[in-house]
Amino acid sequence: QAQLKESGGGVVEPGGSLTLSCAAAGFNFRNADMGWYRQTPGKERELVARISSGGKSTYYTEPVKGRFTISRDNDKNTVMLQMDHLKPEDSAMYFCHVIFLNVWGQGTQVTVSS
Questions:
Q1: Beta strands in the chain (DSSP E)
Q2: Cβ-contact 104, 3 below 8 angstroms
């Protein structure tokens, strides 16, 4: 049974940084494209970043380009999201996602506020 567990969220001031981690288990992580999504109350969940199984191909939604970096460690079954120069509009619940299984983690809250 595929499982994802996010960590690393918290409260940070504008301009600050956070690193989110997602620990994966129960499926062949090395062969799985992975994604990070975010959601705020009353809005649809949106794709933030995506990374291919081998890590060579990445995609970022326009608002986070140049500020966020997605990476993965296939030996540790972990996908990370480095978030720099955070803005208040980045505040959301962030979710890890296994694309081909359509499995989600429980989410980790990021709040950017002074």
A1: 3-7, 10-12, 18-25, 34-39, 46-51, 58-60, 68-73, 78-83, 92-98, 103-104, 108-112
A2: no
Q: What are the structure tokens assigned to 76, written together?
A: 């540790």
Distance CA 70, CA 5 (A): 16
| CA end-to-end span of the chain | 40
Reduced to 3 states (helix: H, G, I; strand: E, B; else coil), residue 29 is helix
Sequence letter at residue 68: F
Phi, psi (degrees; rounded to nearest 5) at 64: -110, -5
Return phi, psi of residue 59, to 5°: -140, 145
Q: Give the tens place of pLDDT for each residue, 44-79.
A: 999 999 999 999 999 999 999 999 999 999 999 999
